[in-house]
Specification:
alpha+beta, seven-stranded antiparallel β-sheet
Length: 248
């Protein structure tokens, strides 16, 4: 019983490791979501009064977003939350007036994993249309000064030239775990690891039995008397009939 309990713990730990590696693999080498990938079936938008920012934001942001949308493909989900308000004072931008529009605050949340998102990273930005200024359409400030756990680690850009992603950001290695993904995915991966491990154990025992070895430790039992069914190495007891048949 203790052996099976230890094996279950090992399988769960291996499942957690595989869960992280799968999410990192999708984030590092998976294909980016392109604008041409977005359809009505994989994109949704919602406007709810109980919306909240899915990650940490800096001081001066609106208390909550006004709208959100996400795009979901196999192994990845990209969520965008947007809110309007006066720009933070530290940026030195003009306050909203009848002629000057409010600033737009966006939080992009990128989640990776299979079957559910398990690791995520985020980036935020503030923009303000400035069409009343010559030779400019928008002033934008990418806010990447949050906690390193939320932002992840920069990766080399792998998007093919001429392809426009949604949104246009650099790749990053996610470091922040998703609760749902870590509650479901490791169990699924642990089940797969357990099945493979169990099949390997059964095959190993069959081979040992046919060679006249102890099923558990592999000790050579062929030189023992036919009436001895106990392994002198580990103490495993086999049926006497099996020992006699091996000794013939």
């Amino acid at each position: 019983m203790k052996r099976w309990a230890r094996r279950a713990v090992v399988c769960l730990l291996l499942g957690a490791v595989v869960n992280v590696l799968v999410a990192w693999g999708i984030a590092a080498w998976g294909r980016e979501i392109l604008l041409t990938d977005i359809t009505e079936s994989n994109r949704r938008e919602w406007y709810l009064s109980e919306l909240r920012w899915p990650g940490p934001v800096e001081a001066g942001w609106p208390p909550k977003p006004e709208r959100a949308s996400d795009v979901t493909l196999i192994g990845r989900r990209e969520t965008v939350c947007t809110g309007d308000g006066p720009p933070p004072e530290r940026l030195g931008w003009p306050a909203p007036t009848a002629q000057v529009p409010a600033a737009e605050f966006r939080l992009f949340l990128f989640s990776y994993g299979f079957p559910m998102p398990a690791m995520s990273w985020q980036t935020t930005e503030v923009s303000q249309p400035v069409s009343y200024w010559p030779h400019a359409n928008e002033r934008m400030r990418r806010e990447d000064r949050g906690a390193w756990l939320a932002e992840g680690v920069d990766l080399p850009e792998l998007v093919r030239p001429g392809k426009v992603t949604y949104p246009v950001v650099k790749r990053r290695l996610p470091l922040k775990p998703c609760v749902a993904g870590f509650a479901v995915n490791p169990t699924a991966y642990a089940a797969v690891v357990g099945v493979v491990w169990g099949l390997g154990t059964v095959a190993q025992r069959v081979v040992r039995r046919r060679r006249g070895l102890c099923r558990d430790c592999g000790y050579d039992l062929r030189g023992l008397p036919v009436n001895v069914a106990k392994c002198p190495e580990c103490g495993f007891v086999r049926a006497l009939q099996a020992v006699q048949s091996d000794g013939l």
